[in-house]
Each structure stands twice: as C-alpha cells, then as structure tokens.
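TL;DR need structure tokens for one chain.
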Amino acid sequence: MLVSLSKAIVTRRAPGHIYEAMMVFGGNGIEERFCALPRLWRDAAILETWEGPYTLLLMQALGDLLKFGVKGRERSFLEFGLGDHLATDDARELAAVLAAENESESARLWGELAPKLYSRFEERALAELQEGR
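>> reply
TL;DR here they are.
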C-alpha cells in the first residue's frame, strides 16, 4: 500500500520541490550549464507519467487495503504503520473510506485522506532516522 501511495504522492510533489530549488539558485538554477535541476524538473514530469496516473496509484493502494482485510481493523493497522504519529481522526476517516456506499464516494474520501496518511508515514520515518533507528 505504501509503495503505491509513495509513487503517487512523491511524483506529484517532485516538480514543485525541484522548481523551488531552482529558484534558490536564481538565474543559475535555470541555466543547465551551472545546475542539473532543470533536467531533474523535466524528469520529474516524466516520472509521474511513468509510474502511473495519480488516481490509478491511489486506487491501487485502496484496493490493497480492501484486499488485505483492513476493514474493521483500521486503528490497529494505522497504529502499526504510524505509531505515535497517528492523528486522532485517521482511523475514523479510513473507516469511512472503506465503508463508503459507492466507489465514487470511497475514491473521493481516499483522495483526501491518502496524502495526509503518507505525510504521517514520512514524518515517522524521518523521526526514526533522526533517532538513529
């Protein structure tokens, strides 16, 4: 599930982050003789297409949650992955996604929740890295 989420979210965020890095370098940031960032920026646009459309990857992650029986165990699933980075409403929101009346509603709710969950997984990983775990 995290692989699909990371592909979707990281490739969606990358062009913006690279653009900001280019602006830090000013004119040199957009001049390819001085900096590799313009090429990375173009490559980032290709990555999103290469890895698969954003919504398809999100739906893959949602399908994985359904396939592996997370429904009814949302809190324990998220606690395992997020630890103390679990927000109060995460399990409730995930339960709403999995219990939605139709696929459209489920997709809409998941599209809102997935980036938040990924950010929390990212925060946990960075915290563990800083702690040396």
